[in-house]
């Protein structure tokens, strides 16, 4: 088992509470590390777990878990936990895990999950859609696609994502979140392989040759997997395609680093909007 065998990794740092009297990681914690990595696996699939299982009509239950210890991890070690779906049977799926310190394999593991009815916990066949998602991800396929269009076409799905993030999560009044500019904006929505919207944003015409990106929102359960960047790149591409020479945006300060990594620069001073600190940013080409 090597690092190159895995497409999905979760990185963590060993904490004091996780080591035993020998000052090495207590053996049971490795299983917890793998279980934590499983959350990242679902994010890499662009699948909010709870909503996806509801759409698929079942749940994933662990039937069997085995670990093999090759070497020990110690306090403050940085570990990378790789996870892959190695096989999908009729109702079960085999996942393989590797816990690495650098390129050194410390622990290998196998987990058997069974797809089952959540009410009776009796097994069901793995849905074809889920089977295809597992197989395609491991083959290197994209797990989400961006669609662009007007409000009539994408407004329902864009509004669903924006309401969840801005209104329910951040507490912004609904009457502020939605405005008349939605009608004239170019919208982008990112959909996963189940057709669920997981991210949304819009592009306005600020002035001739100047675009303005706004209402960028990503479902909280799949953040950290570059889905926001894929959406942002699509909006920038749309601005360039219509002949804009620059795009502006008003970023929440917590997302400033995200936009900097995408080539945006700060312009002006911080300000507050809807009780949240913002900063104006710009990207030119």
How would you explain this protein's 3D organization?
The structure is a single chain. This protein is α+β, with helices and mostly antiparallel strands. 29% of the residues lie in helices and 37% in strands. It has eight helices and 13 strands. The strands form two sheets. Strands 6, 7, 8, 9, 10, 11, 12 and 13 form an eight-stranded mixed sheet that branches. Strands 1-3-4-5-2 form a five-stranded antiparallel sheet. The longest helix is centred in the middle third of the chain and has 19 residues, at 151-169. It is globular and about 60 Å long. It starts with 7 loop residues before the first strand and ends with a strand.
């Amino acid at each position: 088992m090597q690092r190159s065998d895995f497409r999905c990794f979760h990185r963590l740092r060993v904490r004091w509470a996780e080591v035993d009297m020998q000052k090495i990681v207590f053996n049971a914690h490795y299983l917890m590390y793998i279980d934590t990595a499983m959350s990242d696996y679902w994010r890499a699939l662009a699948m909010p777990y709870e909503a996806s299982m509801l759409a698929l009509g079942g749940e994933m239950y662990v039937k069997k878990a085995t670990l093999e210890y090759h070497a020990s991890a110690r306090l403050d070690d940085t570990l990378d936990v790789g996870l892959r779906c190695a096989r999908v049977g009729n109702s079960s799926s085999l996942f393989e895990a590797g816990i690495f310190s650098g390129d050194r394999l410390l622990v290998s593991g196998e987990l058997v999950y069974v797809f089952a009815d959540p009410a009776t916990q009796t097994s069901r066949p793995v849905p074809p859609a889920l089977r295809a998602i597992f197989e395609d991800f491991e083959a290197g396929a994209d797990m989400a696609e961006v669609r662009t269009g007007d409000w009539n076409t994408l407004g329902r799905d864009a509004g669903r994502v924006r309401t969840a993030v801005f209104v329910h999560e951040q507490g912004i009044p609904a009457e502020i979140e939605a405005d008349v500019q939605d009608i004239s904006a170019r919208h982008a929505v990112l959909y996963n392989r189940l057709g669920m919207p997981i991210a949304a944003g819009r592009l306005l015409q600020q002035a001739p040759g100047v675009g303005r990106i706004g209402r960028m929102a990503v479902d909280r359960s799949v953040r950290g997997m570059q889905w926001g960047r894929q959406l942002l790149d699509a909006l920038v591409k749309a601005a360039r395609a219509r002949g804009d020479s620059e795009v502006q945006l008003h970023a929440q300060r917590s997302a400033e680093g995200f936009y900097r990594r995408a080539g945006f620069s700060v312009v002006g001073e911080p300000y507050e909007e809807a009780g949240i600190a913002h900063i104006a940013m710009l990207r030119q080409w």
